[in-house]
Every structure is written in C-alpha cells, then in structure tokens.
Description:
Layout: H1 2-17, H2 31-51, H3 57-86, H4 88-107
Helix pairs in contact: 1-2, 1-4, 2-3, 3-4
Amino acid sequence: MEQILGGLCYSVRVWLYTLFENPWMMLTVEPMHGVTHAFLRIALVHYSKQLATPGLETTAQSVAGVARSLGQISGMVIGGLVMERYGSAVLYRGAAVVVLSTVVLLGL
C-alpha cells in the first residue's frame, strides 16, 4: 500500500511541475516530495524485511538501498539525456506516466 501511495504522490507532483510557468509555484507542491519519500522508504524497509532470511533483515535493507541508489544514478543519466534532447516537460510527464503505470500494475 505504501508504494502505491508514494507512486501516486510522485506522479501528481511531477506532472504538476510541468504545468507551472512561474518556477516559484513549484514550491506549492514541493511538500509532496516529503510524503513521496516517506511512503517509498517505508515500502523499501517493509518489503526488505518480508523478503529477507531471518537474521538478515538489515542486510536486505542495505542491498535494497544500493539497488535504489543505482536506480537513481541511472535515472539521472537517462533523465539528463531526455531533458537535453526533448525538454523538461517530456521528462517529467514521461516519469509520471511510467510511475503511474507501475502503480496500476502493483494495484492489480
């Protein structure tokens, strides 16, 4: 459930970024970043514990954290290329669609 709420918050937030012409308006939705981060971090800890062998829960969280970091690095590189070539609106709307699609698949 946490990953679904986090994904929904993320999708709404980044889609809204693309609608603002005044950059200061982004600050109105930026508090959603805290909600997104909290829900997704809780989901990471929860599922790491569920999938871990008893006694290796913290190791599983560390491995999940490394995988998350590698995903962030990949996202920054690919996102930079997309932003450079197509612009920020395409990048953020594309990210919103990908995350929302994942949320729908998780909800099934």
